[in-house]
Every structure is written in structure tokens, then in C-alpha cells.
Amino acid sequence: MKTSNAMSQESLLKEISQWNEEMCQSELESALPKVVSMYQCCSGWAEHIRLLKILMEMFLPHISFTELEQSFFSQVLPKAVNLFDTLMDELSGQAGALSSQNTELRAALRNVLQTVIQLLETLSVCIRHLCSTHELLSVDSIHSLPASVLHMVKTTFTHCKESEMLYSGRMHLVADLLQALFKEAYSLQKQLMELLDRIVLEPEASEEEVVDMVSVLHNMLEICSVISNMDHALHANTWKFVIKQSLKHQSLLENHLRHNDIVCSLCQDILITFHSCLQLAEQMKLSGSQEDLNSAEYKLFQKTLKLSRFFGNTLVHYTKECMAFLAKSCSSLHQLCLQIYSKVSPGAYSSSVPETLREELARSLLVPMDPLIVQLLSYRPFVEVVLERNQGLH
């Protein structure tokens, strides 16, 4: 019976592969449940990817948005996430034994990496289709999608970040595929942010919709911490998304967001990039290249300074809109101000930084810091923290 059933399934898939768009649409109601059932019961990696591609490429475009979550995403995505987790566990468990001599393991790991890439590519097909439509999009209609994609994206970035340690110095044997994996996760996240940017939460949005959007923003915040020293552009764009969506849906989300985590993470990113600028400035002083505007060090200094200024402006914008929720963040904000002003202004702390570079730092960072101080000095919890710290110094 099993053989007969497998043959009938294979003949169905062969028939479906010949269908045009009109046929897929007309047979959707009868064929989709059968293919979803086959997908849920499949075991091999290759078969899993094959069936997922059929579902995403041939059936998804014909499912109405009102049916997407119940008929498709809730049925398909949990198994896709399980496959992803299995593949990543396989990589993490075997990576340490990779060597140029063990060609069998090398081939096996490369096959796993290629399968993960194919899985992410297939999800990209799904999101590209959703982005290409002009239908109104609600959080309810894609409930399972953001959490599933962000889990895969964050896990992928973490794996890439830790790859030197995981692969025990043999990363070069799979470096091409790790790079391709990072690029695919990068593209997938970018597309998801584009899709989510189209969502409008109505004033009467359900509690579940609000919780879903808050979860998206908190997941994006965690991704920011993973990629902070991996890719400047993605790091900045992820922060832009978090702040834009937080303020776009502010009236609905503000009582649910982890404001302290957002502000503290921004403060940390400002200080990390600021200290990187200081180190680069000190290196240029030692090498005597501070006047060479074409040096690699100076270009990196400018790039890092621009990122630090972006984080500063972002913090000013966010604190202005969400000041009432920042009582727990006052200590971090106070420390940020102390660090910046003590090291940019003339004095012992900034003596190792060339004057011209210190002036650049001051121009870039004090521009956002000055209005931040003005905002904070009108906020009683911040003033209380400052007074308390000052009393402790006497």
C-alpha cells in the first residue's frame, strides 16, 4: 500500500509540475490540502524543499489574503522551522570536526549549508510575492510568518558570527557557503521589513495583532545586538525599522514595548561606535596619518563616526516621543552623556586624540547630544538620577 500511495503522490506532483497558473488556481481547493498533507508527512531534506517550493511558487499566489494564515502559513511554516532547526543543529554539532582530510564530513556539511540556503531562498519567494501584491495586509493574515522568518534570520546571523569558533579554524573550507548563507538571510530580513512596513494597525486592532507587532520589534532588537559588528548598513536599517514601526503604531504599542531595552541598546551602540572612533583616532595619531584624508584608517573613522551620529539622532528622536516611559533608562542615559562629554571636550581623557579629529567627533556627536540634554533636563526622573550621582561624589 505504501508503494502504491507513494506512486500516486509522485504522479500527482508530476501532474502539478505541468500546470499553468490558470490550472493551479482552478484546482487549488482540491490540490492544496493534498500537497500540504504530503509536505507535513515527508521526511527527507530534499523532498521537504521540493514540496515547499511547489507550495510557495505554484499555490501561494492563488490563496486569498483572508485565507493565508489558516490555510497556508499555520500548516506549512512550523515544519519549515523544524527543518531549519534540525539543519542548524547538524551544523553546530559537526562543525568542530571539520578538516581538509575528512572529505566525507566536509561534503556533508556543505550539503547541509546548501539545504539551509535553499530553505531561505524558498521563503524569499513567499515574501517577494506578498510584497508584489497591492492588497491590504493585516497582521492576522501573516501571523506565523514574521516569527518564523525572524527566528531563522537571527539563528543564521548568530551562526555566521560564531563560525570562526564553531568551525575550529577550518572555516575557509565552507567560507563561500557561509557567505552565501549570510547574504540570503540579509535579503530575507530586508524583504520582511519591506513587507511589514505596509501593515497598518487600526485603532481597533486586536490584542493578538498588537502582541504580534511588539514581538516583531523585540525580535528585530535582538537581531541588532547580533549584527552590531557584522554589517553597518544592515545594523542601521534594522534600527530604522524598529524606531519607525514603534512610533508609527505608538498609541497601540507604547504600553507593551520594552522601552528600556531599546534605549539601553541605542546607548550601547553609540558608545561602541564612539569608542571605535577614539581608537581609530589614536591609531592615526601614532601612525601620523591623521592628515591623510585618503587613508583606509580615516575612511573607516568617517564611516564609524557617521554610524555613531545616526544612533545619536535616533536616540534623540525616540526619547522625544517616548519620554514618559524612560524612567528606568535614566541611569544609562546619564552614563552616555558623561562618557561623550568627558572624552570629546578638551581635557585629560581626550588628550590622546588629535585636535582635528576631536573636533570632528565633537561636531558629529554633540549636535545630537545637546538637544538630548535639553530634553532630559526637563524630565524629573533623569534630574533625580543626576543629583543622586552628584551627591555620591561628595
Please give a quick description of this structure.
The chain has 394 residues and is mainly α. The protein contains 17 helices and no strands.
Descriptive labels:
mainly alpha, 17 helices, globular
**How far apart are the first and last residues' alpha carbons, in Å?**
86 Å
Largest sheet: none
Shape type? globular
Question: What is the mean predicted local confidence, pLDDT?
Answer: 90
Structural class: mainly alpha
Instruction: Give the total of beta strands.
Output: 0
Radius of gyration, taken over Cα atoms and rounded to an integer in Å: 26 Å
- How much of the polypeptide forms β-strand, as a percent range? under 5%
Low-pLDDT sequence parts: none
State the helicity in percent bands: over 70%
Count of helices?
Answer: 17
Order of helices and strands: HHHHHHHHHHHHHHHHH
Give a verbal description of the structure.
The chain starts with a helix and ends with a helix. The model has no long low-confidence stretch (mean pLDDT 90). It is 76% helix and 0% strand. Helix 6 (103-132) packs parallel to helix 9 (175-196) and helix 7 packs parallel to helix 10. The longest helix is centred in the N-terminal third of the chain and has 30 residues, at 103-132. It contains 17 helices and no strands. By secondary structure, it is an all-alpha fold. It has helices at 2-16, 21-26, 28-41, 45-59, 68-94, 103-132, 144-161, 163-166, 175-196, 207-227, 232-248, 250-253, 259-287, 296-322, 330-344, 355-377, 380-392.
